[in-house]
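ok trying this again, last paste got cut off
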Amino acid sequence: MNTRAPARLIAALSAAALLLSGCGSDFRLALPRIVVEIDSEGYPSVIGISGRAFGAQVLAPSLVQQISQSNLQHVELAWRPEGVFIWANAKPLTALTLNEQSFRVVSELVKRFGVANPSEDPIAGLGLWLARVLQLNLVLKFPLQPNAAEIPLRDERAPLPTGGSAAAPASIVGLKLSFDENGVPAFLGVSFTELQQLAGVDLSATFLPRETVQQLVAAGVQHITIRTTPEGIKLWVNADQVTTLIWSEEMLSNTAETVGNLRLLDPAVATVVKQFVPLVNQLDANIVLRFPTGGAAPIPEPN
């Protein structure tokens, strides 16, 4: 059996769709909503076809159990030309805006971090573009807990969620942290190692793993900027804007509740998430995380 023919056909269709979407065309091919059911052992199934037949276990059983115990019944992601919209148990969460330039930046970051190399895997390399062009609508369903009432999926005919107006800032946060090659941050030139010795408190939770810093340096990431604006939270990697997280008060509350209820988090962390995330709408924040340049020329931070 020639297994390469379908792959080549998909790659050709992906390339054609990409060219159409990138040349000023309004071409869009909206696929029907795809529902993927994850069983208790982490195997997916689509329209009754189980991944067990192919040995495709996508999640660890322990992770599926934790998600189910949190009563997270389903997560939906909808790719649209303006970005990615997310629902958990049919409740809208904060959405990600991704325009043409943002998609190029994300695609380049994916390649630089070694997640997918278009020269080696053209299908994976076009995955982000294809999801947007095809307006992929993907639902992941998880096993129900005993006696739990089933939550229906959202109405596809309902309008997409929109961001709300920002509240008047209740507090202003400006923070620039510089991480060394070992992942230890410094503020205004003072290392957190020195700060915890002087203050007698443990600040190790703010340290990054050395491996993470090495990956960032290898990928050429010199700084990450997070800034709140009336449009939402803007995120830059180096001088390239990656996305804007748009929200309303409802979307922020839903996000805090969903993340806070996940049994993947320490209870203390979950409590902080539930209390802090809804307050993002009242922050005027500019946070910069700096990393070693690895000998490369410094890249200016966003204005």
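PB: full thing came through this time. The radius of gyration is 21 Å.
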